[in-house]
Amino acid sequence: MIEMFDVWKTYPNGVNALQGINIKINRSEFVYVVGPSGAGKSTFIKLMYREEKPTKGEIFINGFNVDRIKERQIPMIRRNIGVVFQDYRLLPNLTVYENVAFAMEVIEASKSKIRKRVPEVLELVGLPDKLKAFPNQLSGGEQQRVALARALVNNPSIIIADEPTGNLDPDTSWEIMDLFEKINFSGTTVVMATHNREIVNQMRKRVIAIENGQVVRDQQRGEYGYEN
Length: 228
Hints:
Order of helices and strands: EEEHEEHEHHHEHEHEE
CATH class: Alpha Beta
Oligomer: single chain
CATH superfamily: P-loop containing nucleotide triphosphate hydrolases
CATH topology: Rossmann fold
Helix content: 25-40%
Number of helices: 7
Mean pLDDT: 93
């Protein structure tokens, strides 16, 4: 599903954000990416959906070498990857329905398919009655649910999440994690960067730990292992 071979990322300022990463993530896995601030977690995540490109090495997503594909092929890759961010990144002038529908419009889905699919995915994340609401009318947890719905609406094979509970209170964080686990049980691969020690330690999924741009630990049913 996701493979990295000797991946390096060096930024223009000379910082080696990642050094010699070799990782394989299989279909339907749930993987936490942990490590101290500045360790390289966000770069690791961004390489998967081609927000960043590696300086050296190869990355394969669903069999495609993401560094070698043409620009016009990027939407095809991203169609199979849903991304969820800490700050939600909802469009403030669009309703909940319109925010989720936008992800389908980008891939030129038909209007009939959009009308059918958007309510379905909002039902899945527990917001069937919020279609006409705007982001500023929602709580943080509700906004993150909309962001998750947007990531799910095109039935991606992979969900990538960068600190998705970072702005949420503990109870709401667990509600969001329950949704991620439900999505994973349906067969979707989940890769999540997080600083949330309690969630990682209780859920006991695979843990990839990064320090100074290198993978220092890769454990099945792993624990967080760092001070926050």
